[in-house]
Design brief:
Elements lengths: L2 E4 L13 E6 L3 E7 L4 E6 L6 E6 L18 H5 L4 H12 L7 E6 L8 E6 L4 E7 L15 E6 L15 E7 L4 E6 L4 E6 L6 E7 H5 L8 H8 L11 E3 L5 E8 L13 H6 L8 H9 L13 E3 L2 E5 L3 E5 L8 E6 L3 E6 L16 E6 L8 E4 L8 E2 L6 H4 L6 E4 L2 E4 L7 H10 L1 E5 L4 E6 L3 H8 L12 E7 L5 E11 L2 E6 L3 H12 L5 E4 L5 E6 L3 H6 L2 E2 L15 E6 L2 E6 L8 E6 L4 H12 L4 E3 L2 H10 L35 H9 L3 E8 L10 E4 L2 E12 L4 E9 L8 E6 L5 E8 L17 H5 L17
Parallel strand pairs: 15-22, 26-37
Antiparallel strand pairs: 1-2, 2-9, 3-8, 4-7, 4-9, 5-6, 5-8, 10-21, 11-20, 12-19, 12-21, 13-16, 13-20, 14-15, 15-19, 17-18, 22-23, 24-25, 26-32, 27-30, 27-31, 28-29, 29-30, 32-36, 33-34, 34-35, 35-36, 38-41, 38-43, 39-40, 39-42, 40-41, 42-43
Helix pairs in contact: 8-13
Length: 793
């Protein structure tokens, strides 16, 4: 359970007392929280059809819900006995308070057909311990019943101002740094330091020194310049490049979790001189506060401390200026660090109240230190929308296998995904996909189950393709647009039944958008998030069909892997594990995607790797995928299109048929853009081997006529190629243009406009059908063949 302290919907200043505690209880999990007498509790089912049970200490259930139906509510002890990280955490919390699970009364929440946004509200009549169980079970890959989140809001009877969020684990140190002060503390190697912005928009300057060296009279503290050089970033973040170093190039701390992502590592902590220059002599400042609390540790005073300024919103702007604005941090946001050696630390609550640095109003910072055995997972927070509850970077069900083969992981759309693997590297992985087969974890794709009598109407309204022509077991690639014709996302629609669709895309906001459309048009349809119930690997390359046909067992009424056509799917089993197999991919090669529940992902991975080994199957990461998809002319959100790019400008105008009988959102705007195009996506062949990247300008003489959206050095073509969006007046095929480097004028690279895709433009490889011999080969036999993945024979 991730917890945050946030303003209610009407939005209030950080210094206001009118705030609430808000968090998400994940599908098929349980969580623990406390209420005080008078607190108003609200539990919301944002996606609908999600049952839950609220367990409250006996005697604390309010009269207004005391007679609420409880049929079917399981005993809390039985639920906690299931195990799992969430259940063990609740058991530990109850044990630490000496409370038995049998001492709880159950309240049943939400009907089976609850509408999206259904809410349960109650006011606590006494202090109470609560456990919320979000009911559910693992979703089969061909089912559409994922357990989804419930949102919990607690509006306190009193003020939340200055109240720190619950600890992540039992703390060894619980330290309050009052506004405009500093505190020092010591930390042992391996322990965790959590620095919390209690009320939001408050900077916390941080210093750390090697304790052993300090005891010898030597000061070795965090050095931003060394850190920038070694980490290659303005501020380290969770992942491979996560450490802060001293001037000896020895790491002192690493970032484990970060719920903000915007900090300063360039500016000094505020000092007396800063305020004197601004006309405020004698103003409290972080440098003097640090000098005072570090003196007992033998640290020499400074006129200005080069601190790590957590939550400080520094902006490197135009004209080579460094400016700042209010912090991004919200109430309860934090940075979690791990000490890499024994440390003497100091944390300040910045005293600045004369500019936006602290939102004009300094507030408290809270510091907690946790035992080294806590072993917190690494992650950045991601928000689907600006007001959404943050969620730390996740691991897919395949992560135990991929992480054993590489440490080169990157945070891709909120999931840890391999950049490349130790045994091969991007180039070898690329050639494996082109010549043999490669396997890649693509679980970061977002999945939404669209179900209900009006599901077809909703999808017909939401996407550019004519969904009414889509057959069951068929897939179509399409765009999703907003009212002005810009693309929200691209993705694939799977038709699982007459009123059953699955939307698979890259942006989690798509689910919010679909629910919004359904509500506005009064459609009876549910849009349920299934991202955490459906993980997938892509098996791509000329040998992919051979590999999968040897292990996938399908029921008699479903097509085999050999029979599966492009943009179709089938269901089956791999060594008894239910899977859905789609003939889709993002490489331009013959390929498939294998979808399963994350709890069975390692079994699926092992089975595919075992059968694929004789065929040269190789794990592949994002770096190789980028080369493949650019050669194939496959567009990528945030690079080749954004929310002001229409499908024609994105190079996927084929997804907008002229004869679609029903209007879709943005259809009028897209039609106008079709008839009066301003920009066009083209291919570029670039001379030489110098690097070209996203955002480089494309020039005709002195004038910039467009921008490179994606580029790579193509291994199979032996040259640098790019996708670029150009003004239509300058987008003629065969025209010579230049790529501007440095300031766009000092250095130019020659290029020629060409059609794209650059490689296999007729898509003969991805369309390749099975040979007659393969088609005649009998499917593998298995006792599971007659009934698989929930589909009867």
């Amino acid at each position: 359970m991730n917890q945050i302290w946030m303003p209610p919907a009407e939005s209030v200043p950080a210094s206001s007392a009118a705030r609430m505690l808000s968090f998400a209880a994940r599908g098929d999990s349980c969580c623990f929280f406390e209420l005080e007498a008078g607190d108003r509790l609200r539990i919301i089912d944002p996606e609908g059809r999600q049952p839950g049970y609220l367990y409250v200490q006996a005697g604390a259930v309010p009269d207004e819900v005391r007679t609420r139906p409880e049929a079917g509510a399981p005993n809390l002890s039985d639920h906690l006995a299931r195990g799992g990280t969430d259940c063990r955490a609740v058991v530990a919390m109850l044990h630490s308070r000496g409370i038995a699970a049998s001492n709880f009364q159950a309240l049943q929440l939400f009907a089976a057909e609850a509408e999206p946004g259904a809410a349960f509200e109650v006011t606590a009549t006494a202090d109470a311990i609560c456990v919320l169980v979000v009911a559910g079970k693992p979703m089969a890959p061909d089912a559409q019943d994922p357990p989804t989140d419930l949102l919990v809001e607690i509006r306190p009877s009193g003020s939340l101002e200055g109240r720190a969020p619950p600890p992540l684990a039992p703390p060894l140190l619980d330290l309050r740094v009052k506004a405009a002060t500093a505190r020092s503390y010591t930390v042992k190697a391996g322990q965790y330091i959590q620095i919390i912005d209690v009320d939001g928009r408050q900077c916390a300057d941080f210093l750390a020194f090697d304790a052993a060296a300090l005891a010898e009279g030597k000061e070795y503290g965090l050095d931003a310049t060394t850190t920038h050089t070694l980490m290659g970033s303005t501020a380290p973040k969770p992942g491979l490049l996560s450490k802060y170093f001293d001037a000896r190039m020895i790491p002192l701390v690493e970032v484990v979790q970060d719920t903000v992502g915007r900090h300063d590592t360039f500016m000094l902590a505020c000092s007396a001189k800063y305020y004197e220059d601004m006309g405020y002599p004698g103003h409290s400042n972080c440098t003097d506060n640090f000098n005072a609390v570090l003196a007992p540790h033998g640290v020499q005073a400074k006129k200005g401390w080069p601190a790590i300024n957590f939550f400080y919103n520094t902006i490197a702007g135009a004209g080579d200026q460094i400016t700042m604005d209010e912090p991004w941090s919200r109430p309860g946001d934090y940075v979690l660090l791990r000490a890499l050696t024994d440390l003497v630390c100091a944390t300040s609550s910045c005293a600045d109240d004369i500019d936006p640095a602290n939102g004009w109003f300094p507030t408290d910072i809270h510091v907690r230190v946790y035992d080294a055995a806590s072993a917190f997972p690494k992650g950045m927070s991601h928000r689907m929308t600006p007001d959404a509850e943050p969620r730390l970077t996740r691991e897919s069900g395949f992560h135990p296998r991929t992480s054993a083969l590489t440490r080169k992981m990157e945070d891709y759309r909120g999931f840890w995904v391999p950049t490349c693997f130790n045994a091969a590297g991007p180039l070898e992985e690329y050639w494996a996909c082109r010549e043999r087969a490669a396997i890649m974890d693509l679980s970061a794709l977002r999945k939404f189950e669209v179900i209900g009598p009006d599901a077809e109407d909703l999808m017909q309204l939401a996407v550019t393709r004519n969904v009414r022509k889509l057959a069951i077991n068929q897939i179509v690639y399409t765009a999703m647009c907003n009212e002005h014709g810009g693309m929200i996302d691209d993705g694939t629609v799977f038709r699982l039944g007459q009123n059953n669709f699955r939307w698979i895309c890259g942006d989690e906001y798509s689910g919010v958008w679909l629910r919004k459309l359904a509500a506005e048009h009064k459609l009876k349809v549910w849009v349920k998030s299934s991202t955490d119930q459906l993980h997938n690997v892509a098996v791509q390359g000329p040998k992919s069909r051979t590999i999968l046909s040897g292990i996938v067992v399908t029921p008699p009424q479903e097509p085999t892997v050999d029979e599966l056509k492009w943009f179709r799917f089938t269901v089956g089993r791999i060594n008894g594990v239910p899977v859905l197999i789609s003939r889709t991919g993002y490489t331009g090669e013959l390929g498939f995607e294998v979808w399963c529940h994350p709890s069975q992902a390692t079994s699926v991975w092992d089975s595919i790797m075992e059968v694929g080994e004789p065929h040269g199957l190789t794990p592949m990461g994002l770096a190789a995928l980028d080369m493949l998809r650019i050669e194939a002319g496959l567009v990528f959100a945030g690079y080749d299109f954004c929310d002001h790019t229409d499908p024609f400008e994105a190079g996927i105008g084929f997804t907008v048929p002229k004869d679609k009988p029903d209007p879709f959102v943005g259809s009028e705007a897209v039609s106008r853009r079709r008839d009066n195009p301003h920009r066009r996506l083209v291919g570029l062949d670039i001379e030489g081997n110098e690097h070209v990247g996203h955002g480089d300008g494309v020039y005709a003489g002195r004038t910039q006529v467009g921008v490179v959206t994606s580029a790579t050095k193509s291994p199979i073509l032996g040259k640098t190629i790019a996708l670029a969006r150009l003004d239509v007046s300058a987008a003629a095929i065969g025209r010579d243009v230049e790529i501007g480097k440095l300031d766009g004028h000092q250095k130019r690279l020659s290029a020629k406009i060409v059609e794209f895709p650059h490689f296999d433009p007729k898509k003969t490889r991805v369309r390749a059908e099975a040979s007659s011999q393969a088609a005649a080969r009998p499917a593998p036999s298995s006792p599971d063949a007659v009934a698989t993945a929930g589909v009867p024979a």
